[in-house]
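Person: Show me a sequence?

Helper:
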Amino acid sequence: MSKGNSTKITDELYQYMLDHNPPLDSVQRGLVARTYATFPDVAGMQSAEEQGPLLAFLVRLTGARHIVEVGTFTGFSALSMAQALPADGRIIACDVSEEWTAYGRQAWEEAGVADRIELRIAPALDTLRAMPAEPHIDMAYVDADKESQISYWEELVPRLRPGGLIVTDNTLYHGTVLDESATGSAAGVRAFNDHVAADPRMDSVLLAISDGLTLSRKR
């Protein structure tokens, strides 16, 4: 087996990577800082810093105009994608917390993209099932409770246009996907990864970016 992970990501190498990626702007940087200062115990739920520029890149690459985000937290990923959208583009952002998303609302206003983001505070499955059944979504970002990921997937795939993209975060889940006796969220991620790999409707690749990122394109 040819193994491609011989480069170990030290703190210095990670900073080098960030230094050679598009930098976060002042609004993004401020939101990241506020998240860690206000919610230190759960700030790890925020998408990694390098994922902001990557999500923006994917929005531009796919020409997305209609995006669905499942799991918004304090709004960093939605902000990054909204900034890459054309003026007529829209994101439906799904979350259940008014407290967390209030920080996102503030940042979206500061960045001038609040009109591109429709926040829906409700269980994400309810929001997804209320959407039109025909293919109309260009891109989706899934970063929510791991035990529901297959359910989110099954609601999103039929609504995704051909060539559309689903980006799923945490698909290595701190390495616990290797544990065959895993329970809870880790078991949910393991089941999701198997489900995605076997889905004939989609072409998918699992990448060792941050905590694992799966990119899935509809055939």
